[in-house]
Amino acid sequence: MMQFYARFAVRTFTHSKLRTWLTMLGIFIGIAAIVSLISLGQGLKTAIGAQFSALGTDRIIVQAKSLNFGPPGQGTVATLTEKDMEEIERVAGVGEVAARLLKTAKAEFNDRTQFTFIGSIPETQEGRRLIADMFRLRTDKGRLLTSGDRKKVVVGSNYADKDIFGKPVDVGARLILNGESFEVVGVMAKLGQPQIDGSILMPEDAMRELYGLDDEVSAIVVQSQKGVEPSVVSERILKKLRTFRDVKEGREDFTVQTSGELLATLGTILDIVTAVLAGIAGISLIVGGIGIMNTMYTSVLERTNDIGLMKAVGAQNKDILMLFLMESGLLGLVGGAIGIVIGVLLGKGVEIIATFALGTALVQASFPWYLIIGALVFSFVVGSLAGTLPAIQASHLSPVDALRRA
Amino acid sequence: MFELALHAVRGIRHRQLRSWLTMLGIFVGIAAVVALISLSEGLKVSIQEQFEKIGGDKIFIQPKGTFGGFESDAAQLTVSDKDELARVSGVDETTTYVLEVGLLSSEDENLPVYISGVPDNAKERALVIEIGTWEIEQGKWFEKGNHDKIVIGNDFFRTEILDKKVNVGDIVDVNGQKFTVSGVLKRIGDPSTDGGIFMDEDALRSLLGLTAEETNFIGVRVEKGADMAVVQERLKKELRKLHNVEKGQEDFEVQSPEDLLAVFNSIFGIIQVVLVGIAAISLLVGAVGIMNTMYTSVLERTNEIGVMKAVGARNGDILTLFIIESGVLGFVGGIIGILLGSGMSKLVEIVAGQVFGSPLIRAVFPLSLIVGALIFATLIGILSGVLPAYQAARLQPVEALRYE
Asked: Scanning A85, A138, A167, B39, which has its CA 20 to 30 A from the CA of B102?
């Protein structure tokens, strides 16, 4: 029986080809827009997730409470110090601990001046490894900083470009930072993260000297020990620092976050943006659904005679209903399938263009199975819903009237 | 022509349901586009008004390498810069503006907040207040030189950010020191003002241990009748000399409110284009719907077309007839869509105003939006009718008459 419905529906499509195509066109434009938007949103989330999982969800970041979402150490109320670090080292479950300093600097090269971020690299072997792992630091040319480096820096990949100073900064070049001269020993590989690609790395001691810093730190990075839940360690650090800094619960002047929590926050923001965009694009699906409804009404009108005939030879109301529902559902489904193909191509197209034009690895189109299946089911539902009213009207026609209609 | 239009309207009325559904497609799309544009334009206008309140005779100077409004480690402005700049020709007066972050505390809440310093000098004080567009809603500004009183942003007064709402006369704790609230500012929709606190500049310096020399920004009032661009250039030149830097290597930025507004508008413009562009996809789908309806309409009236041609209608007449029909579909769809879209954005404005108390979100309907949307909707109707109308016009009278 199902097969019969389907065959009947397909026959009407081939009968009024142009109308069928135009109707489906409405659906697949909408589906293509939604699929490409969601795939890019999901892709971005996956790409960010991949970066995070490389740094591991066992990292904990301690920062002074700040007002803005800017880089750590900026706009903070009370600074963290090395004493806080020592406290954290004594917390059970804490593995490696490293300090991060982050400052802005005036950089001069090739007779041009720029303002840039400088980040510190710890003096200890373990600390350096922790930071290098966390930010996935690697060099394109030269080397990373090692112990014994004094007036040496490593520059982010952006400096290899001539845009910043009019000519590329290469290994061996000398940069003037806040009036003091530093030798470039390495140029980093592109990471796709603007904060790191555009910054300069300097040994921690050299940085303290340059800025006259005593024991202040911008952020403290903690690796929790294997087998211990990072959130438990994070909770312990929170308690320990509360006692040490003598603040009541809820009145902390610092924040303790695991990398997993950071990732979750970022994911939520991305989800909201994707949902808003896909929602606006979804309006076009409503319009497409109205198009299906219109086509189905026309189809019912044109086939009033057929319906009368079918009823006369014994078709029941529900048979007619099914017939038309099947037809509109198929319109939606086929429109959706074509829409998905176009949406996938669009998403991939944007990915390729972005990768070439912007050189970022963050714009990726991802097509999880639930997106494909979901879009198909959704387009089928839109088609069926749009067909419901016309189908009910068709099924309620009285056979005599329907036959009599010219 | 009139007769053709009448005929088209009759055609539309004849197939009421289909015409309504076709127009529904258009007005959903137009409504979405109109609502989005009117809300984003409204936001733009609100922001613009904020800037206009500052006045066109002001110039801001900030160090380069400032990120998110905070002091840069690399470059700094000083109080003596401010004094020197006051002597630049065309400058009426200059002021320091110290903006820092402090910790506002209550029983069990510790909140980082922006603290703005208000200078002692009456003229400077007036200039800073004008630039910040700070207006008192309750109470009053603290007297000059009073180091124990502060003015608070509206958020603390209106909502329970702290344990409870803060009122004039209450005592609050900032970085461990007690201050009495002397006044509450009006809400302006800028988080750093609505969620900030304001105290005497010297009190702020001693509270946070700042030197007497540093300032985050310098505000400038230009003399009446002076050319803004010229004064801006002079200020740059003078500061270059003071900071001993060459042209092109400035460690500071000199900006007028217009410059800042232009930056905002260019960023906001991109967001607007993306949102409206995505919403416009539904208009495309609506256009396909009109085309579909028109093809069906041509098909149904093949016989009629044959008769008209037999009694002397030319191809051009038939073409016009169908194009008018599809144009009317677009036009009426557009009118309803504009009404619906305006209603939606007004509703958003009311909800945002009542529920969130946001003064920035409002719907504006410039004439260009209404007329533009209407023309656009009609154009969509006409364009999507062209192909079907062309097909109708080229029908052979004999075959059209024979068509069953």
From this structure: A85
